[in-house]
Amino acid sequence: MTAAIAALEEAQIYNGTAAPGRVLLLESNDRVGKKILATGNGKCNFTHEKISGVSYHTDDRTVLEAVISGFPTEAVLHFFERLGMLYREKNGYFYPLPETASTVLDVLRLRLSELGCEISCGVLVEGIEKKSGGFQICFAEGEKKRLVYAESVILATGSRAGGFLQNKNTDPLGPAKCLGLRSTALYPSLAKCICREDFYYRQLAGVRSQVRLKLYGEDQAAVRKFLRQEEGELQLTKEGISGIVVFQLSGKIAEMLSEKRRVIVEINFLPEFSEGELSGWIEERLSMLPGRCLKDFFLGVLHKKVLDVCLQAEGLKGTQEIPRGDRGKSFRMVSSVMERALHFTTEVTGVSDIRQAQVCRGGLVLSQFDTKLECRKLAGCFACGEVLNVDGECGGYNLHFAWGSGLLAGREAMKRALKNRRRRGIDGRE
User: Fold this and answer.
1) Would you kindly state where each structural domain of the chain is located, as residue ranges?
2) Which residues have a Cβ under 8 Å from the Cβ of 16 and sit 6 or more positions away?
3) 271 to 199, 242, 346: CA distances (angstroms)
4) More confident: 273 or 165
C-alpha cells in the first residue's frame, strides 16, 4: 500500500499535475491491508523511536541500513501525518491517536483512493515474465484470466505468517519464483514456543511474570553455549512459553531446531536479584521471619504456582517448616528454592506454526537487491516488506520496515517506469 502511494505521488511530481501515473495493485485477499488490523493487539504499534539495523535479522546489512537510514522514525511519522493521522508515543512505541489498527488502514486506503490507484482483490498471480522494457503479468480474477503489461513490478507479497492468506493456493514467493529470484528457508518468528513434555507448563499455565530469559544452544557434543538474553513479561501456556521475551528469540530458536540443535532456555523469575545479593537476602529474611513453613516464607516473593513448581523440582513441600535450630540446613533449603527460581531451565522442542506467528523469518535474499530495492540482475523488478529476508523485533520494527521499504520501492519503481517511457518516446514507440 505504501509502495503504491509512493509510486503515484512520484508520478504526480514528474507530471506536475494532479493526474498521476497508472498503478495496479493486485491483492489475493478480498480487501487490501487486512493483516494490519491484527497488529499490536488491534492497536497497531506502527513504529518505534529507536529504529536501527541491530534490531533486524537479514542477509545483507548494507541494503538494510540504506532503507533504514533513508526512512528513519521521523520520516515514517511524517508520512502518516501527511495522510491525516495523529499518533501518541508510549515508552518509545508509537500508536495512532485513537489506538485502533483500523485507523492506520483507513488512512492508507483513503490515500490510495484519492490518487486513483487501481485495485483488484481476490486475484491469483499465475506468472510474471520479463519482456522488453517491462514485465507481462498473468493473473486469475475469479474465472477470468488477465494479462497486463507493466514497466516496473513491485513484489510485496508478504508471507503466510498470521494466516491471513484467504486463497490456499497463494504462494507468497510464487511471483518471485517465476522471475528466478532466490529465497532462504522460512521460519516462524515472533511466535510462542513449545517445551518438553516434562516441563511443568500444565501447572504453570496462565502465569504472567517479569523474567530474564537466557537462550542456550547445544551442539552434538552436548556443549552448551550462551547465545542471547531478553527481559520482559513471560506468559506460560499449556504447551510452553510465550510473551515478548519469547517472541524476540523465537526466530533464532526455529532456525536452531531446523538444524537439529538442542535448544535450552533458562528462566529467571526474580531478575531483580543479583547472585551477589542472594546470600545476604536469605540470611536477613531467615532472621526476620523465623519458624515459617516454606510456603509462607516465600509469600510475597514468588507467584504461588511458580513457588509450587520450584518446591516440587527440589523435592520439597510448601508445608515443610524451616528448621530453627540448624541455620545451615535452613539456609540450604531456602537457597535451593531460590536457585531454582533464578535458574529454571527447560528444553524448547518446537515453535508455533508459521500461520500462528506474527512474522516470517526468511524470504527473498536481500543481497539480490540494491540499495534502492531494485533487483541487481532484473531491471524494473523491486521488492519490499515481509517478502524480503528481513525480520525485526517486537515493538513496531516490522511494520516500520514495511512502510519504509514500500515507500522506497514505490518511488524508485515509478522513476524506472518513467525512464522507460521517455526512452520509448525517443524511439518513436508509444
Assistant:
1) 2-187+357-426, 192-351
2) none
3) 21, 18, 17
4) 273
Instruction: Write out pLDDT tens, residues 100-128.
Output: 999 999 999 999 999 999 999 999 999 99
Which cell numbers in the block locate residue 85?
Answer: 493521522
With H, G, I as helix, E, B as strand and everything else as coil, classify residue 123.
strand
One-letter amino acid for residue 243 of the chain: G
Which three cell numbers mark 349?
A: 522442542
* CA 172 to chain centroid: 17
Say how many CA atoms lie within 13 Å of 15 toward its Cβ: 16
Closest by alpha carbon to 231, among 248, 219, 208, 216?
248
Closest CA to 240 of 158, 325, 347: 347
- Please determine, looking at this structure, whether the domain spanning 2-187+357-426 carries the CATH number 3.50.50.60: yes
Grid cell at residue 374: 531494485
Dihedral sign (CA 129, 135, 140, 144): negative
In this prediction, residue 425 has a pLDDT band, given cuts at 50, 70 and 90, of low
Torsion of CA 77, 83, 89, 92, to 10 degrees: -30
pLDDT at 429: 33
pTM of the model: 0.90
Distance CA 61, CA 50 (A): 17
The CA angle 417-64-69, to the nearest 5 degrees, is 85
Cα diameter, the chain? 102
What pLDDT does 430 receive?
37
Of 116, 79, 93, the residue nearest 2 (C-alpha): 79
The rounded distance, in Å, linking the Cα atoms of 395 and 377 is: 34
Set of cell numbers at residue 11 = 508520478
Give yes or no for residue 248 having a pLDDT over 80. Answer: yes
Number of CB atoms found within 10 A of residue 123's CB: 20
C-alpha grid cell, residue 314 = 527440589
Among 358, 352, 316, which Cα is nearest to 337's?
316
pLDDT of residue 16: 64
- Cα 45 to chain centroid distance, Å, stands at 12
Whether 45 contacts 11, CB under 8 Å? no
Contact (CB, 8 A) for 46 and 399: yes
Alpha helices in 115-179 (DSSP H): 174-178
Q: At what angle do helices 327-342 and 275-288 cross, to 10 degrees?
A: 130
Asked whether 87 and 94 are in contact (CB, 8 A), the reply is yes
Cβ atoms of residues 151 and 416 within 8 Å? yes
- Report the alpha-carbon distance of residue 100 to residue 96 in Å, rounded: 7
Beta-bridge mates of residue 138: 127, 147
